[in-house]
Amino acid sequence: MPASGTQMLGGWSKDRFTAAALVLPDLIGDVEHAVRVHRTATDSQIRREVLRVAADLYGLLRSYCRRAGRLDLSLMVADRAIRAAEDADDPVRIAAAQWNLGHVLLSHSEPGAVEEAKEVALRAVEQLHQAPVTVETKAVEGALELVAVVSDARRRHWWEARDRLEQRATPLAEQVGEGNVQWTVFGRTNVAMHAMSIEMLAGEASEGLRVADRIDTHGLPSRERQFTFGLKLARCHDLRREDAAVLVHLLDLEDIAPEDLARSPLARNMILDLQKRVRPTFRRQVDELVHRLQLA
């Protein structure tokens, strides 16, 4: 996949959704055409490389569709990523495609979807263990373990989530260091962010903020992960009704990724709740934020 496309969808541009919408139709058409042309190619190496590109594209599309609020399309492209990775016989991409599917399921409100996300992730871990051990396989395994951690936390299994994070994800992060294998951004920082997320979901805002004080996201190769960290910081302060801190973090998020802020259900809810209760000192800034994001 072209570097510019990867960079755009990976999250470096502030207007990445608007910009991506301009190039995605042609990019999808080009990749689909290449897959059709090489479906019966005699050169198996070229065919596999084309399928790898297709798997990468559909993995990135999963994130785009989810942020655009199209979970139906997100599920479809996640499935296409799995098929392309399997046709390419690429163990790392197969596991990464299952990681993508796990994230789609975590976003669904359908009964059982969050639990299914954990099942998908752990089956993928078992399958990945059949492949040769490399830094890439360990990184994707760690990312899959984090899907299971989030599933446990979303189902209010706090201690199970904490234990899996400590016993499974943390050792893998120590082994692979920081990285971005298959856009998973798995590493020590991401594991620490998940520790913070568990406390936030458990309503332990003070503990979440204590964990956050030890996290530095500036070196992360993903604006999306930096945004997510800031959003969780805002939520921890929101749980404590520290409105000034909530506003500061929201304004910072607007500067980092305004389109992500406008598309995030959690952010929208926080902003609208803040507008209802904020002191007169900050009301103008909150009203202007609501107006800029077109939330009312």
From TrEMBL:
This is Transcriptional regulator. It comes from Streptomyces justiciae.
